């Protein structure tokens, strides 16, 4: 019965997540996610590549970023969901030598729980120009291929995804597990951001002559959202530090993120229900993460 | 003799040593009759064991673990305190009666007490010789604690206290009580209160037992009828009572109780897996409870890690701790009860009733949510 477990990210995770945070905060300062979710990225791929940030996950003889470190980075990334295949590339280059040999962004073709057991796969950022798809994550084999024909995936719009009818990518057990954790972690970032937006809104929006955040029903919704975000954050840290039952844990993480998102939507009233307000982009990311985590459950 | 699972201490040598020492001590210290046949003990027998346990803790060097050495504590940290609570719960150690004194009175006296109070009260408290109880709630002042009406009126070199406190846990065993009382009825709310340290045996103090829904008697009503308390037993200045009470409520919601609760929840859940793990209709519920329980353990570890850094991340993590464990335990107890396992009937009946208290004391969970939203998220009052 162990209680004192180290939950902190390592130095790499601390440094990288702070740096990524600075970069994306600067790129998105003063803009809302609506400005770029379906439009041009506020950040160029080159900016990430020049800093070497796409290589941050590389393991050299076991040295380098641990999954816990990548969780710290993915959480930060999830707060803005800039439409670049950043997390995908980090994981691809972590688990594939051939992916490392390519300078540009790399993604893969994932099974998801709604694509069913056939050959359909989901390629995050499959619509992204210049992207390569790696055919094996984990192990020494695999190649890089150009993106095949497919249909745009409609749920996570920031991810510019494509649905294809070929399997394309094989995953080792470790790669599949890590991917589930990374998408769970970016969902936690998205949930944290939604909570932040909900709190700001509740302080500003006036009804009955006072801020809605002074009504206890609204306060308790947001307190419950914080409880969910905290629980999700802790659970994703746990998922990154263990190898057993990880996919079950990641499903729990994403579920708690969606719990928080629903509460934040409610707090926004009709505004939250609009496309324009843009909260749905974060929720879409979580719902997609849920499908991915569910799909990876039976993988390899 | 078994050794401590190395994971307990994440490779920290000092913590490992501490855990090993604690585990060894617990193995011999916990009374066999408590460990093996607690349910068969009479009320007096059980009280006697719990009473003795407080003295044992001191003799073993485990009283006031995270308390400063200068004041007779062990001078260790939250990590050691949590480890000890986990190991003690795991070893099925009794819960002494000195808990209120150690977790509430001691930090309060160190923070706001006089040198005389520190010298007079801390040593017997840590030795487990003087037991304390908490005189905050009143019939008309529960969540709205600032509405207490118990009066403390100046009388010579002290005060006379008159009023009625209620839900006083361990009043039956306590030697002393700390009382929040009105000293200045004309002062504005929050400025009218003071804190006093009162002898439970002083003339004018009397108690009435109150039976709880589980059938047990662990709290009481405490009456004060012109009870004299010397000025030197006032903590802080007149009018500081509210501030001192608020600081103290922060101590009440800390990590060591959560640690002990985690162990209890884990053991309840293990019982459920053993007896009902093969029931398909319970599979999803048990799986989710397992996730939540292990997340609680990691959350506690996260709180400890963040404590040193302070700041917003720590404030967030620690603020949700009580809601997390209390609501989790209530669900486990409910699922356990509803599983209707004949052999465990008494256990689950008791747990179900007992678990109803945890979302009420130390500030109800509604009040916790008010605090989270106002103090942590910064929403307007
Ligand atoms: C087992 C146990 C041990 C205890 N031990 C002690 C002790 O040793 N010493 C001591 O002083 N006290 C003790 N208490 C008392 C405890 O602190 C109070 O019960 C608690 O503060 C709630 O007060 P109340 O019971 O008067 O409920 P009330 O304050 O009357 O609350 C009733 C309901 O209304 C809700 N409510 C009240 N105000 C608000 C609000 N502003 N916003 C939203 N909801 C609200 C509450 O959440 C609750 O659901 C103990 C209680 C229990 C159950």
From TrEMBL, chain B:
Per the record, the coiled-coil ranges are none
Keyword tags: Flavoprotein, Oxidoreductase
Keyword ATP-binding listed? The answer is no
In this chain the Acyl-CoA dehydrogenase/oxidase C-terminal domain maps to 239-377
Q: Where is the Acyl-CoA dehydrogenase/oxidase N-terminal domain?
A: 45-129
Kindly indicate whether the keyword Flavoprotein belongs to this entry. yes
Q: What is this protein called?
A: Acyl-CoA dehydrogenase family protein
Q: Which InterPro entries match?
A: Acyl-CoA_Oxase/DH_mid-dom, AcylCo_DH/oxidase_C, AcylCoA_DH/ox_N, Mycobact_Acyl-CoA_DH
| Acyl-CoA oxidase/dehydrogenase middle domain sequence ranges | 133-226
